[in-house]
Each structure stands twice: as C-alpha cells, then as structure tokens.
C-alpha cells in the first residue's frame, strides 16, 4: 500500500500548489509512512525531491514549498521492493529525467522487464519495481509513439495490481492507470486532482469521478479523459458525483474503523505474504538452511508476535527439534551459543525489547534471523537474514492482519524446515476468507462478552498460543480482563473463579478433542458460559457439554487451523469493543510500536 | 446512477398495523423508515429515485416530501418482491442502486455501498453479520466466487445493492447469477431490518444511540422537569412540571409530556403525540398524534398514528416470546387510529 496524489492547476500559485500537495500527503500518510517524495513540472523541467521518513521529515529536509510548476505528483511510501531510502522513494524517473512516476502496487514481472531494459541500455537508479514504468515509457516514446500511447503500452506490459500516475516533460497532463488499487479523480474550479482516496482531497473538493479497475487516461487542469484497457472510451461526466462531506470526514475508506478494515483484509495480507515467501526463494532457502543447521532455535517476540512465535516453536518442538520460545523482555535467562539460531519476530521491526534481545543473542554468537512487516527496520538491519511478511501498513493499534500473516509465514517456514509439502498453503487465502463468513457468530459472542468483566480463554496444543492471543486481543481492545491457560491447567487453580455466567472461550483446533471436552464439561458443570471456537469438528452436538455457543469453521488441512482461528478471535474482540462503545483503533495506554523497554 | 427503492411490501409481520399504514412510512424518531434510506443514499450522491409503492403510495410520497432530488413513484404491478424489483428496474438504464425501504442504518452504510461500486465498477452486495434468524433470508458465502445460499454462512444480504439491469424471475437467483463478478462489503455498524414490531423498538435504540442530546430553543420545558442524558426535544414540544425524561429518549415536534410522567429507556414520542399526566413510557414508539391517557404504563409497545389509549391502561411485556431464535419482550401493537379503553390490561404480544 502507498498513497499517491497528482494535481494539475491553472489557478493556484506554485507555492500554494506545492503546499496543497504536502497537505494531501499528510492525509495519505496512513497508507504508508516510510518515505515521501514529490515531482513538479514547470515549462522547462521536471524536478523531483524525495526523502526517507515521514512527511514532516521530508518537509524539513527538502522544503518542497519552493518547488515550481503547475503540475505536481506526490507519494508516500510503504516499501515492498527495496528498503526505505532517499533513492528508493518515489517519484522515479527515466534515464533522461523527463518522465516521473508514482506508483501504489507491485509489478510482478518487473525483474524480466528490468533485465530487458538494461539490455537495451537503460540505467536504473533504484531497487524498486516502479522505476521500470518510467523506462518503459521512455522506450516506447523512442519508438515514435505519442505520450499517451507510450504510457498505455507500458501499462499493458506490466503485471500485478497498481495505481500509477505519470508526468512527462512538456505535456501538461497527468497520465493515470488503475488495476485493483484505489484511485479517484477530484474536480475543482480550474484544478483537477487524482488521489488514492477522496478523503485526502476533501479540503479542496468533494466532486469525485471514480476510476474503475482496468482503466487508464489522463487529467489536466480542465480535462479528464478515461478509457478502459480494452480501448472503450468512458463518459466521465456521467460518473461525476458529489460525496457527502459528513460521511467522508468520518470514514476510513468506507470502513467503520481501521481494525475492521484490517481484519477483513487479512486474506489479502496472507496471500501477499505467501506469494512473496514463495517468490523470494534465495533468502528463504538461506533462512531454512540456517535454521535446519542450528542446534537450537530461539524464537523471540513481544505481545502478539510472541504468540505467533510460540506457535512456530511448538510445531518444531513436536517434530523433535529443539525450539525455545522467548518473551523478548525476558531474554536474559535464555542463553544462546554459536551453533544456535534466533528468529526475532516483530511487526514494526522497531520493538525495543526485541531489538535488545536480538543484540544480546548476537553477542552470544548466535545467527540472527528476523521476520518483520516493514522493510529496512532496525531489527532486520541487526539480523543476518531478514524475512518479511507483506501485510501492508496496519493502522489499528492492535495487530490483526499482521498476526495472521505472521502465522502464515511461519507455517511456510516450519513446513519447509520439517520437510513437509507446502501445497496445502495454496488454500491459505481461502481459509481466512471462510473464517470471515462466520462474522455473525463473532458478533454474537463479542456482544455477549461485552457484558462481562472477566473471561478465560483455554486451549490445548497449538490452541494455547491462540488462546493467549484471543485473551490479549479482548483485553487490549475491549478492556475485558481475560486470562489464557492451557485447558488442562485450568483445573489447577483458575477454575476456582468460575461461577454461574462466567465466560470461558475454548479454542478447539481439532487436537486433543477428548481432553478438551472434559475441560468444557468441568466448566459447564460450574455454571460457566462455555463458548467453543472449533475447526473441522463440532463439540456442541454432545449435549452433556452444555456448550453455550459454538462456531465451527472447516479447513482443508488441519495445519491451516490457526489461519481460520485468528480472524475469529480478532473479530470477537472487535465486536466486544464496538458493543462497549470504545474506539478499537486507539486502545488507551497502548502504542503501535513499543520503542521503550 | 438511479436508485430503486422498494416500499410496496405487505408488511405481514406487522399486521394488522400495516393494513392502515405502510411499513416504510412508519415514523421513528422524527422520520419515516424509508426516509432514512433515501437520505442515506442522497448523502452518498444519488439524486434520482424510483420508488416502488402500492395502494398506500401517498403515505410514502408524504414521507419523502421535501427531498431535493428527482422522485418517481411507480405502482407495483408484478406481484412479490421480485416483481417489485422488476417493475422498478424498468425505469433504470444500466447500473442502479436497489435499496429495501425498510432498513435503518447510518448514512455510512450507503456511502460504503456507493464507494465500493466506484472503486470496482462491479455489482456490489452489502452484507451484515447475523446470528439470529439465519434461515430467514439469503446469505452470502465467500468461496472462490460469491454464492447466495440458504445456510453455511453468517453474512446476510443487507438490503442495498448496486446491480446491472437484467432479466430474472426470482431476485435471489438473479443475485446468484451475477455473484461471480460482484464485489461485497461486510457492514459492522448498526443495522435493523424492520419486519416485526420489535424491530421498530430496536430501530429506536439504534437511532437514539447515534444521536447527541439536543433541546430546541422553541420547546417549552417546565423548570421543574428533569432531563437526563441523550434526550432529543424538538421544536414546539411541551414538557410539563415534574416530568422526567430519562434518556435515551426522543420527543418530537409539538409533542406533549404531561406532569409527573416518566419517559425512559429508548422511547420515541413522535410529532404531536400527547402523553397525559402520571404516565410511564419505556422502550416504546408512540406514533404521531397518538394520545396516551393519564396514569398509563406503556412498555415495549408500538402505539400507532392517532391511536387513543385510555386512562390507566397497562401493557404487559413479560413473559417474552421467542422470536427469531432470540427472546424478545413485547407488549402491545396498536394500529393507527386504534383504541384501548380506560383501564385496559393488555399483553404480552397483544395486537389490535
């Protein structure tokens, strides 16, 4: 995900236009925040200024308000190819510097295109996939095509989802194209804007022309032209509509909250994560080799990442490998040696506890691997092998789609490590989608838990880390005190608290079902309200268990069970928060990235 | 893009109330049910409406009066829901919005629908997570392609769609036939499908939870009245001495609340209704110009437009009946213009 903006104006002064571009970039920062850049086109040249970091840092370092021109492009980046750096920031240009491109998406066939272009003599400055678009257009223009034709040819030769904006020196138009990533035109007096979302343009206009998938075209200050990839012209006037200002102001691209949006995007996050794991064979096989040669594997994480790591460690332990899960802040009591490997898991890659643990183990002489969701973060810099989930930016403070993506990435790694066929992961995306179908139950259970002040989450086997994560989610989002235990442990103490109406959520991944049923019976017998989240089986048919409510989701392979469970426990917490009327995106006392010890 | 609004149902689950008043025209917290739908779509940018009505079409026209948009009211000729949709569809060109006129949801519901269409250029199905009444309506299953099913999902069709014009005899079959190229969204906000009398009470909860307190400068409120949180009082309303409005509650235009009466917990007193002295009204909808005699107790009830409840009438809401798998209390449903004599004792689940 990235944010892109283009503005063509005949009215505003250069300075005003530059400032407007910056202001819109601030509003697009939620779509990516690791680097920022702008291009401006005046009569004689295209100027590009860009920098690693936030919009604020960009403004300080590059003073964009002094840029000249009547056409501006802007970009706020979430790195997927090439780590965040000044060079990799957008806009990207061709060899001549006459074509500038901003892009949100990935170009799947960029490696081939790039090789091809290098053979033809093009010189690349960055490691990004985006830069090939600039060179492709340059190439087609050299063949004698006019600007729009060259642009269209370039677009039709790239594969993958995108929203792209291009400016070409001497041409007052901004060329655009869209396939599956958002892009909208905003129409104002003497000015046309084009942006990733309508909210960002809201201060200038709420007159919107939507662009559908597989369409391209161009805008200038007064002109808006759209055609389908198939060549059919679109009547732009009939599409023009006025978006309601109230709903614009309160929406997150139409979703009620970022957390809701991010849970519902989990299947895409998992798909992208696994795609990239399968594509980046070199680094992944290096990682697998390193883990398989290790005497012991330490798995380090904090909070949600620890739970993902715990699941990974348990899977390896069960297969006879020595794998030790470590809560990052408690690393002191786990000493590694030179023949050990350490896998550090962190969404942001900046978690202070995990970073310190990683340094500690590096000092022990162990080999360090990392799994993070951003490129170029401190933890990946500290590691010998840096792996990445590709969940995209997550705005909600509580980890949702990033957790599910971590689980998917770790399933991929563990299966490779254990010599399993990874064919079953082809069903991963569908598994997560299936689980979204059970949202109605999540709503009912969340609404029920919302009335309670305490809850237990119990599971066995891989259900334990899931129970821990479920309890954490409902604590942090809905402020309901919840404790997780291995179900067998519940009778060694915790059961003392259980009385009539006490909610107990059982995570039933299909393992140790007999034992788990006994635990349910024990709880029901004491009046607990037992809620069972089941994969591939149904326990409530056994009336003796007196299950209050059961959700059963099926998966094609039991190893996929955690991927079906993750969105469920997240949605339960989400609906509990909604029922309480608290904002799930901003839980009190919590920060997205914990950079203190 | 045009929107086709369906407001021609028989309202069977609200009989006999709906013999007199069209379900979509029932006023809840100051607006008719259908008006919430049309205004929601208006805010999402829709300016042309085709409203399918039946012989009570005039009520719907009145309910939608004053909306700055093109409104075409057409009388349903083909029977059934599918028929109403087909009748409406004759008035549209290509892609159109189809909205059921009996859904109460915030405006964002409609902007999300239109937004999703703008984003994708494909048909869009709205869905809501449900756990009650799973077997009552079409559900959406998210396999490799979307499917419309009767079971196997908890995502119900939510009553607002963007669809291409097409030929069909059954609406759900039509949805299934376009589902493979459709986009969808899962709505997690408030949403009520008004079918049963209890749904009107849920609608009040839903609406009042979203309203901030508001007291019109042109309302007359006695200095000894007590007004709690989350209370809306519209212009011309009169609240007499020692009345207690314990929110959430809605007091419509020119409504009257007599001395020592208690209006509490999600009650909505519509325009021009009169609550006599010493009454208690809880979880109830009191229709326009309805009159509640003194010393009455009205709970979990719907009192129709211009109905007259005598003095000392008592509604009973318990024991609750089992409705759509959930237990829901309900007292009395009194049709528009209906009467309850002095000293009546009615309920639970009384209908007249």
TrEMBL record, chain A:
Q: Which UniProt keywords apply?
A: Aminotransferase, Glutamine amidotransferase, Repeat, Transferase
Q: Which reaction does it catalyse?
A: D-fructose 6-phosphate + L-glutamine = D-glucosamine 6-phosphate + L-glutamate
Which EC number(s) does UniProt give? 2.6.1.16
Q: Which residues form the SIS domain?
A: 287-423, 445-587
Query: Which InterPro entries does the protein's record reference?
Result: GATase_2_dom, GFAT, GFAT_N, GlmS/AgaS_SIS, GlmS/FrlB_SIS, Ntn_hydrolases_N, SIS_dom, SIS_dom_sf
Alphabetized Gene3D superfamilies for the sequence: Glucose-6-phosphate isomerase like protein, domain 1, Glutamine Phosphoribosylpyrophosphate, subunit 1, domain 1
Q: Which SUPFAM superfamilies does the record associate with it?
A: N-terminal nucleophile aminohydrolases (Ntn hydrolases), SIS domain
| Entry keyword annotation includes Membrane | no
Instruction: Reply yes or no: does the keyword Cytoplasm apply.
Output: no
Q: Name a biological process GO annotation.
A: fructose 6-phosphate metabolic process
Q: Where is the Glutamine amidotransferase type-2 domain?
A: 2-222
Q: Name one GO molecular function term.
A: glutamine-fructose-6-phosphate transaminase (isomerizing) activity
Q: Which domain of life is it from?
A: Archaea
The protein here is known as glutamine--fructose-6-phosphate transaminase (isomerizing)
Name the species this protein comes from: Metallosphaera yellowstonensis MK1
From TrEMBL, chain B:
Q: Highest taxon of the source?
A: Archaea
Q: Residue limits of the Mannose-1-phosphate guanyltransferase C-terminal domain?
A: 246-313
Q: Where is the MobA-like NTP transferase domain?
A: 3-133
- List the taxonomic lineage: Archaea, Thermoproteota, Thermoprotei, Sulfolobales, Sulfolobaceae
One term of GO molecular function: nucleotidyltransferase activity
Keyword flag Transcription regulation: no
Question: Which terms are listed as keywords in the entry?
Answer: Nucleotidyltransferase, Transferase
What protein name applies here?
Nucleoside-diphosphate-sugar pyrophosphorylase family protein
